[in-house]
Design a protein that fits this description.
The protein is mainly β. The chain is built from no helices and 11 strands.
Length: 119
């Protein structure tokens, strides 16, 4: 278990779940953050429970995002660019949104966001 501080807002519970605490003096000091949060130049998404998410995440608008599920120092960070998942290639644009039914350069991605060579 880790303890959050002003200089490090991250907190990990006994189950290994990560949270980010609010250290801004805006009336929410120490509260768990939810939604999109930026730390160290990386974007992370936190569920309504405050738990950091990883893997595929669909927002309220139906947009898919891919959050790093590898424990490589950027666990949970939003991914961009071409990403290989389960043997298939997906493209996440600069905002992190998965491309669907569109050309990405010379490559077509289908309605599931998968690069396909058949178009």
């Amino acid at each position: 278990m880790t303890t959050a501080t002003k200089s490090n807002p991250w907190f990990q519970d006994e189950d290994g779940t990560w949270y980010m605490l609010d250290y801004r003096h805006d009336g929410q000091y120490g509260a768990m953050l939810t939604g999109w949060q930026q730390d160290g130049g990386e974007w992370y998404h936190f569920a309504k429970s405050g738990a950091m998410q990883s893997g595929w995440m669909k927002d309220a608008d139906g947009t898919w995002y891919l959050l790093n599920s590898k424990h490589d120092g950027t666990f949970g960070a939003m991914l961009t660019g071409w990403q290989k998942v389960g043997g298939k290639w997906y493209y996440m644009d600069a905002s992190g949104a998965m491309a669907e039914n569109e050309w990405v350069g010379r490559y077509w991605v289908d309605g599931s966001g998968v690069w396909t060579a058949t178009r």
